[in-house]
Amino acid sequence: MKIGVAREIKVHENRVALTPAGAERLVAAGNEVWVETQAGVGSLLPDASYEKAGAKIAASAADVWKSCDLILKVKEPLKQEWPHIRKGQTLFTYFHLAADLDLTKAMMATGAHCFAYETLEVNRTLPLLTPMSEVAGRMAIQAGAQWLERSRGGSGILLGGVPGVDRAHVLVLGGGVVGTQAARMACGLGADVTIMDVNLDRLRYLDEVMPKNCRLLYSTPFALRELLPWADLVVGAVLIPGAAAPKLIRREDLKLMKQGSVIVDVAIDQGGCIETAKPTSHAEPTYVIDGVIHYCVANMPGAVPRTSTFALNNATLPYAIQLAKLGPARAILENPALRSAANVIAGELVYPAVAESFKLPSTAVLDAAKRIA
User: Fold this and answer.
1) Which residues pair with 35 in a beta bridge?
2) Which residues are catalytic?
């Protein structure tokens, strides 16, 4: 199969979907790999490293999209890329369709087969979301600490405090991978941390493994409102796989928060768990509403591409190899993990959570696969 890697064009997105080591594996499996020139430079991976691995360098994105049957990406296709996508082509990337109706309809209109990293499930885990969730969770605390600085408009509080001065209070909404990593980082810096979640088993587990400066609370709207006046930094880390994130903090709740406090909504890829959240970029990462700084960068791991690219490729490569070997129809019919990654097949929406988010009709994924087999 001809596999293409296009350079990411999202603002300040420096990750690349395939490393030279990954290209070498795909070539060894009998595939032809084309990488757009300069696709890896943001992750310090020059064209020569791909050529040495057996890949071919394409002069433009158009060449990659036109000639390749399977396209590997990091972020969702942007509007400039939609015209390149053709019927029967397979895309394997982060889509986060439940947060974007226009993107969902556009992918359906192309007739392409869209496999999403973020919904691929194995034993009730999301292995292709996990590495970027780990990165984003840790980065949420780095970002929050920076924007709490007075020079950036924050309240001027140091996360860990100093002897004789109170430390910052960090509230983490969600005890999954993002929330756990964020809480670990905040605890390590000495902050006073609270994780809220609705899964009692998860709370019991976290109670055993988290540091002593982290407390666990069952999440209810009432309990959340009680904690907002206390919080200096709030991290939104709620995930419902493939579906839009629930809005846990409402616009009126911002009035409960301190002036100069910070919200980092890591769930923004899925629409955000804060009602006032809207996607931002690394170029303009924040905005202020009611005196509360909102940091809602939709591709946080793109700021540390060297780490993120390798972490992502370690997770995605085995499935990319299988997808290339089997093709979209057989991948769905024979590989349960790739079946769970299928979101749009030949113009049909096959992931129920996305369909429910927009009240759109959906098709059984196995039926859709049989039609294209």
Assistant:
1) 5, 57
2) 96, 269
Q: Is 206 in the same domain as 344?
A: no
Mean pLDDT (whole number) for 310-328 = 97
- The three-point CA angle 345-370-356 to 5° equals 40
Decide if 63 contacts 90 (C-beta within 8 A): no
Using only the alpha carbons of the chain, give its radius of gyration.
21
- Statement to judge: residues 10 and 77 lie in one domain: yes
DSSP 3-state of 103: helix
Predicted local confidence at residue 241, as pLDDT = 79
153 and 116 within one domain? no
Where does the pLDDT of residue 355 fall: very low under 50, low under 70, confident under 90, or very high at 90 and above? very high
Domain-terminating residue out of 282, 303, 324:
303
Q: For the sheet containing 90-93, what is the strand order?
A: 56-58, 32-36, 2-5, 70-72, 90-93, 113-116, 342-345, 348-349
Model-level pTM?
A: 0.88
Number of compact structural domains in the chain: 2
Q: Which of 303, 331, 359 represents a domain boundary (last residue)? A: 303
Quote the Cα angle for 132-138-141, to 5°: 135
Reported as a single tens digit per residue, the pLDDT across 100-123 is 999 999 999 999 999 999 999 999
